[in-house]
Amino acid sequence: MKKLFSGKMRWISIGMITLAIAGGAFYYYTKSAQASTATTTQIQTASAFRGNIVLQASGTGKLAPANQASFGFGTSGQIAALDVKIGDQVEAGQVLGNMDDTEVQAAYEQAKRSLADLTTPAAIASAQQSVAQAEVDIYNAKQDLEHLISSDVYYWENKVAAAEQTLKEAQAAGG
């Protein structure tokens, strides 16, 4: 006699049982979800009346302002004029006060005089004369050095110095 649950029939039976279990689980889940959402919310009511609300609070800590602004002058010194009082409303860019600027004015005038002295024709001619004299001194120093050592040594020392300068520039450019 043939076995009742062999081969293909056994797999069909296992599939049917699995589907029945899955269907039962789905039904139980949907019914329990509907039951949990169906619970009613209790409404609480109270009578309204007029009166004063009295609240008190106490605690310790630091108070901090909601908004804070600070301002200052770019330099220190004496205030010559104050254009606002405590509690006045001010606007952005409004001048609040002026400082005593006599020392700054004196320094400015001195700088203007120094500039004028340096840009006179005589001062410019003197500076040009100093540059020319320095160029002559450099030329003479090179001639004296060439005379003290041979011209070949002088030539190669200049070549080495130029090569060293090129190396430093390349290293600086390369990082």
Write a compact overview of the structure shown.
This protein is mostly helical. It contains 4 helices and 2 strands; from the N terminus they run H-E-E-H-H-H. The chain has a domain at 103-174.
Write a structural description.
By secondary structure, this protein is mostly helical. The chain contains 4 helices and 2 strands. Helices cover 57% and strands 4% of the residues. The chain is flat, with a radius of gyration of 49 Å. The model has no long low-confidence stretch (mean pLDDT 84).
Helix and strand arrangement:
Layout: H1 8-37, E1 79-82, E2 97-99, H2 102-118, H3 121-148, H4 151-174
Antiparallel strand pairs: 1-2
The CA-CA distance between the termini, in Å, is 94 Å
Q: What topology, given as strand order, has the largest sheet?
A: 1-2
Largest sheet: 2 strands, antiparallel
The general outline is flat
Order of helices and strands: HEEHHH
| Rg, Cα atoms, Å | 49 Å
Q: Helical percent range?
A: 55-70%
The number of distinct β-strands equals 2
Structural class: mainly alpha
